[in-house]
Amino acid sequence: MTKQQLTENILAKKSYLCVGLDTDLGRIPQHLLSESDPIFAFNKAIIDATEDLCVAYKPNIAFYEALGAKGWESLQKTLDYIPDNIFTIADAKRGDIGNTSRLYAKAFFETMNFDSVTVAPYMGVDSVSPFLEFENSWVILLGLTSNKGSRDFQFASQDGQMPLYEKVMRTARTWGTDENLMFVIGATHPEKFAEIREIAPDNFLLVPGVGAQGGDLAGLSKYGMNESVGLLVNSSRGIIYAGDGKDFAEKARAAAQKLQEEMAELLQEKFG
Amino acid sequence: MTKQQLTENILAKKSYLCVGLDTDLGRIPQHLLSESDPIFAFNKAIIDATEDLCVAYKPNIAFYEALGAKGWESLQKTLDYIPDNIFTIADAKRGDIGNTSRLYAKAFFETMNFDSVTVAPYMGVDSVSPFLEFENSWVILLGLTSNKGSRDFQFASQDGQMPLYEKVMRTARTWGTDENLMFVIGATHPEKFAEIREIAPDNFLLVPGVGAQGGDLAGLSKYGMNESVGLLVNSSRGIIYAGDGKDFAEKARAAAQKLQEEMAELLQEKFG
Questions:
Q1: Interchain contact B4–A (C-beta under 8 A)
Q2: Which of A268, B146, B164, B235 is the most buried (most CB within 10 A)?
Q3: pLDDT digits (tens, 9 = 90+) for B28-44
């Protein structure tokens, strides 16, 4: 999917919502456990209930990997079930030496046909570039993450010039373009979005941390939105575990709709 | 496996060799492709040919993941086949927010029963700590990696105090102990090993980059060895693809033996 298509989808659906599929056997409704593939049964119901309200789905790969080979089958079925016009994100946070990153890229872009994959920057250029070489595919590179540990290394000044997250973003912008590179910027740092937009004016940002982690949608949208919208705001647990009974999908829809309606207003303010 | 057991194995086998199982359908001998599981058939032959010469095996998870669910089955079979007294490393370079890292830890330590997993530090404490909470399990955290891209961020001075790799190591040593935390230090930086031993005197180091990447075994061993040996030196392609015909396992053994014999000499110099 191109950047332009993504923006068009957002404006058409009045939503820049990404639904995170952090699907956990310990948290899905009990009545699904008798299904032959409870993980897929849950995801299918969530997708049916939310696909008109969101523009992206983000399976968190750890949740599938923790189930071994069976988990990968559930993941593939989920990916196949997501409508083609919805952007898919493998939230995998991979990154390794060149020949290995190339195989991770192959895993997510060819074996599984995701639109994008999240990548960790620590190992530098040859750990990221192989992901950028696949056509019609996106790297979503960790910039400033939403978690407590983001304060351990990401804010330290690099050679007295700029914090690590900024150096990562500025350096990575020389590796890719706004047509194949996005950044992860946590919603838990809303005060940073104006500055982030100076560093990366044109790149889309994937923003986790609204909902369970406490980020502020209006604040980050005000400063983070650009002329292409430029935001994919993710909620995982706040949507998919909104209910835990037989009506879980309706509850998930209601939670997604609440965010979508807020997004529609914020888009209206910006784009009229 | 405890640190003491690992050291005992090294001294008994006169080897601190780790064999990297970067098993690639495009590079294994053609005659194996007719097997029902060519990846496992190859790994089994490599393990049979090298298990007395090495103290660790390191499957590179990307190579299995690129094959989808079938790859995970080959990985599980490989892991089950590795003798219990050989240390196993899931070279996965994972790391995510706390609840997600916990699931990656579960995937590698419980679902698959690896002794250790490589972890990326960018997201800080809550991305690493969940891996440290599993008993008899090890985190091998990226410190200074062997690749070209290690120069992009890892050497930059943090707040004018020390390079990023040093800050990562010093910080992480407050999260774990030398009984559950090792560091990845690339063999391509042999001049750094004396300094690395000042930063982390007691931790084991996993050292990739000997062989295909050009690192120097004698140099890094001289400065990197400590009283517990403290080194696991990995070779992947240099061993497993030493031959590409029907005698590939013998060729792999010969390549492993060459490294093991050099290690035996270096251990002799240090421990007598």
A1: no
A2: B235
A3: 999 999 999 999 999 99
Three-class secondary structure of residue A103 per DSSP: helix
Interface contact A120-B22, CB threshold 8 A: no
Which residues, numbered 170 to 199 in chain A, qualify as contacts with chain B under a Cβ-Cβ cut-off of 8 Å? 171
The answer to whether A263 and A217 have CB atoms below 8 angstroms apart is: yes
CA dihedral over B200, B202, B204, B209, signed as positive or negative: positive
CA dihedral (A195, A95, A62, A54) in degrees, to 10, reads 40
Residue A216 confidence (pLDDT): 87
Give the H/E segment covering residue A153.
Answer: helix A150-153
φ, ψ of residue B192 to 5 degrees: the values are -95, -10
- Verify whether the Cβ–Cβ distance B62 to A111 is below 8 Å: no
B117-167 residue pLDDT tens: 999 999 999 999 999 999 999 999 999 999 999 999 999 999 999 999 999
Q: In angstroms, how far is CA B148 from the centroid of its own chain?
A: 18
Strand B138-144, strand B157-158: pairing? unpaired
Number of Cβ atoms within 10 Å of the Cβ of B45:
19
Handedness of CA A81, A87, A92, A96 (dihedral sign): positive
Q: Determine phi and psi for B66, rounding to 5 degrees.
A: -65, -15
Mean residue pLDDT of chain B comes to 96
Angle, CA B116 vertex, CA B113 and CA B117 arms, to 5°: 105
Q: In chain B, count of helices (H) and strands (E)?
A: 12, 10
- Which of A122, A160, A153, A165 has the alpha carbon at shortest distance from B167? A153
Q: Could you say which residues from 233 to 262 on chain A have a Cβ atom under 8 Å away from some Cβ of chain B? A: none
- What token pair was written down for B172? 């992480």
On whether the CB atoms of residues B247 and B218 are closer than 8 A, the answer is no
Q: In the predicted model, is pLDDT for residue B212 greater than 70?
A: no
Instruction: For chain B, say whether A131 makes contact (Cβ under 8 Å).
Output: no
Judge contact between A132 and A153, C-beta under 8 A. no
- Closest residue in A to B101 (Cα) is A62
C-beta atoms of A146 and B97 within 8 A: yes
ipTM of the complex: 0.95
Q: Cβ contact (<8 Å) for A103 and B171?
A: no
**Which residues, numbered 100 to 129 in chain A, qualify as contacts with chain B under a Cβ-Cβ cut-off of 8 Å?**
100-101, 103-104, 106-107, 111-112, 120-128
- Looking at per-residue confidence, does A191 or B193 come out higher? B193
Q: What is the mean pLDDT of residues A214-238?
A: 93
What six digits make up the tokens of A251?
């509850």
What pLDDT is stored for residue A68 in this prediction? 86
For range B103-109, the mean pLDDT: 95
Domains of chain B from N-terminus onward: 3-271 (3.20.20.70)
Average pLDDT for residues A207-224, to the nearest whole number? 86
From the list A44, A77, A93, A106, the catalytic residue is A93
Cα–Cα separations (whole angstroms), residue A95 to A101, B118, B240: 6, 11, 23
With beta carbons less than 8 A apart as the criterion, state whether B107 and B116 touch.
no
